[in-house]
Each structure stands twice: as C-alpha cells, then as structure tokens.
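Researcher: Next entry in the queue.
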Amino acid sequence: MERRKFLLRAAAVGAAPLAPALAAGIGTGAQPSNAQKRPSLGHSVAELRAMYRRDLFVDWLPFMDQHVIDPEYGGFLCNTDFDGRHVDYEKEPLFEGRGMWVYSTLYLRFGHDSRYLEVARRSAELLTKSQPADDTFWCTRIHRDGSPAGSPGKLIPTDVGIAEGFAAYAQATNKQEYLDRAKQLLRKCIDAYNRVDYNPTVGRTYFGLDAPPLPGPRIMGSAMIMLRSAAQILAADHDPYFDRFARRCASIVLERHFNQRYQLNNELLLHDASLPPAPYDQLVNLGNTLEMTWMLLDEATRQRDDAMFRTVAERFHRHTEVARDPVYRGMFHTLLNVDENKYELAKLLWAQEETLTDALYIYDRLGERWAAELFAGVHAYVRDRFPLAAHGSPIWMYQSGRQATFEQFTSLRKRIENYHHPRHLMLTLLRLETMRH
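Model: Structure for this entry, 437 residues:
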C-alpha cells in the first residue's frame, strides 16, 4: 500500500497544550481513498473507545477513589494490593508527582471535573511537607502525613517526575508558582545529570553489584523522562531554555544512542556520548525505547519535522521486532547482550501498553499496516494476560514473569500502578476519539 501523506499537527498528545483547538494534540490522521481499506486494529474504533472508557472510568478510577487516594492526608497510597488491602501507608514523592500529572490531565482533558483537580491539589500540598533545599534532591519516601521518611535522594527521577506533575497542575490551575517550581526542579536535575560524577553505579541496575563503574553516564531513560517534563513545561509556557533542551534530548537519542551496527538504541553511553566498554556496549533497554517513542513522535510534531517522525516510527518498528517474545507473546523489556541474545524475561505491563500507544499513534498518522497489526496483536495479548477480573479485581497486573501468569504476579511487591497504566488509557482514548474508522 502506498504510504499516506504525513499531516503536520501543531501539538503533542501528552503535553495537553493550553489552546483549546490544539488541546487534543491529535488532528485528522491519514485516511484511505475509497479504493483502499484500512487495516484492522482487531476491533472497530467504536469498540476500542468503549473498552478504554470502561477501563478508565468504570474500573481504574473507582478503584483509586476507594483504595488508593488517601482521604485523610491526600496523595496516593500506592503500596496497596490488587484487592485493595494496604501493605503500609508510606508514600513515594515520585508517585505523588506522577499521580498529580494523571489527575491534572484528567481535569484538563476529560471534562474539567473538579474532583480530579482536588486530588491533584492535595497531592501538591502534601509534597510541600518534604520540599528539599534548592541544591538537594527530594527524599524517595515520605510518611503518610507527607513528612520525610528518609534522607535526600541521589538521583534525578523523583524530582523530574514531580516537575512534570507540578507543570501539569500549573496548566490546570494557571498557578504560576507551580510552573516556576517545575522549572526550578528540572533545571536542577539537568545540572546534576551533566556532572561528570553523576550516578557512577548505574550499571548495577542491570549487572548487579559487580558492574564496573560508569561515572557521568548518558542514560537514555534519563533523556526520556527529562524530555517528558520539558514537554509538559512547554505546554504551559514556551520557554526558550526548555525548547532548546527538548531538542537536545531528542537529538542525543536519535544521533548518539542509536547504534548503527545492530540498529538498536544503547541505553548507556559515556559522558561524552561515545560508546562505552563492555558490558554496556551490548545493553539495550527495549522498554525505554518503547516508552520514549511517542514522546519523540510528539517532539517531531512540535518541531514540524516529518523526516524525524518517520525515522522514529521506523526505529520503533525495529525495536518491536527484537523485543517480541516468539514463544509466549508480548514484549521483553531488556536485552542485556545483543550478540549473545540474552534477555531479561519479565513482562512489564507498561512496556506492552507503551507499544500500543506508539502503534496507534503511527497508524493514525501514517496509516502503516504493520502498526495496525502490531496494535491488534499486542492488544489481544494484554487483554488476555494482564487483567485481574477473574480474581475479583478491576486492576491489572503491573508485571509478571515471561508467561505472564497470576502466580508469577503474586510473588512481586504489592503496589498499584498510578501512572503508566492510566496514562496509556487516557492517551489512547483521546486518540480514538478523533479517529473516524
């Protein structure tokens, strides 16, 4: 089938810009001629809309209201099992920032329901009780009342996640103070990330305590979360500093993390963005590419760069071919060694759902048959393996083993996913609402 014309649209789905005409961030996708038939997504668009609305508004949000949103102090009790039983009452500032983004976006994009904004407001206010000094990172754990439950953190993800949440809350409320706080937090993280001694033990995440040090690494996952926070800030205020930074994040992923030899993204680079020594030269975090794809597609849209959009789409396709489990279906998360074909075998729900978000985005914009087929296959797999309705819960497994069984899931930490799952539901539903077929 002839590839369809790329239609530029002015804004990104995840960023939720202020202008009402641009707020959906998804214009009319490529449409076939009368002689052409669009490939199947496995269900009609109307059926998918109904599924996603049920998942978000009938299943996930009521469970959150009943079991996870703290009625006493505000914030999110994410250390909760799928049956609603609280394991403990500690909270994590990272999940507060992420939850704040979710509920601010629900308010902005799904009817301006004041109940959503109230959840975001109480989370924002809860975080003020653990606000660190300007030159330190947020602690990674807080007590139920919001007071710190540990010393300041050492890495950027928590502060980056809070920055994204503050920026979304600022956009929902037009409160400049929260936008200023988001900018300050992200600038602090950028400065820390650029230090030559930042996170020298990053390799332990993949290779254990004996992993060789890698000081000041360039981490694709860090570029991803910082790009996402920058995009949210830019949705509220076109700040030239964050405009330049977002462009740099995209550029380093596309130009430096991509390994021409095996046509995959290296997760870790040296501080100068060159290829690191073994074992890091063989490390591909497939899940981070699956997650970052729609953010890069958004950035290509923001830059009005159709060539960049197509490059990102083609590289995503390549990564899904490598990530796909040929035996038990679904997507693997990490390829530890390319040449030895050595994978981590866990199945993470968010890696599957990010694949769906990307595939539908590419199908909507470019009309690619492979994207429709990918969406249909992964959608069927996810619906088959991850929902817990058979076990009396509207929540889905956030992770499992290679075969994605309930027994493998129950051995994991008890927690509720308050970011990736609802984000996927919202972004996909928003896109489906604009699709005609």
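Model: Confidence is low (pLDDT under 50) at residues 1-35.
Researcher: Noted, moving on.
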